[in-house]
Amino acid sequence: xxxxxxxxxxxxxxxxxxxxxxxxxxxxxxxxxxxxxxxxxxxxxxxxxxxxxxxxxxxxxxxxxxxxxxxxxxxxxxxxxxxxxxxxxxxxxxxxxxxxxxxxxxxxxxxxxx
Amino acid sequence: xxxxxxxxxxxxxxxxxxxxxxxxxxxxxxxxxxxxxxxxxxxxxxxxxxxxxxxxxxxxxxxxxxxxxxxxxxxxxxxxxxxxxxxxxxxxxxxxxxxxxxxxxxxxxxxxxx
Lengths: 114, 114
Hints:
The complex is a heterodimer of chains A (114) and B (114). Chain A is mainly beta and 114 residues long.
């Protein structure tokens, strides 16, 4: 069984540039999560979906961040105008059945904003 | 809303010694609880999970955790630490009502000395 895949693995930007992160969850998993993990901190939830619907995006900085999962499978997280404070690893995870069940994490995308 | 506190940012243990990593949660009701591990340059992986029932939960690689409702704790233990256990350990909590949101602690970095 293929795991959660993410791309790119690394990204380096200047402030003000845009970047997109892509996630392919495990087949059949209805719930998809995006987390931001600053260096030496725990994952902090940004947004999560059940199928194609956004369940909670309250932690997403809506003026610059957006996330979609149009067909309930792959997902894209986009930062419109990156800031140095966005420097972190962005993790995607999927599960079947929501918060009761194990989340399977991808390897993450390490973003550096100069 | 639920929250998790891992009071020890870093723990050093001699190889072969026993280990306890502390986790305190805050949630009104009985939650679902998880311990994840993040090995160097790898994604998060599940060690063990607690669902309402037996308070002592067995996980992979000799890890176990004990749920205490009275202390609001879910401490992780291992009888004999191996050098390969060198990693960051995260405690996480999810609503017992079956909601989707999972909140992670800030993590404890385990260092194993020879």
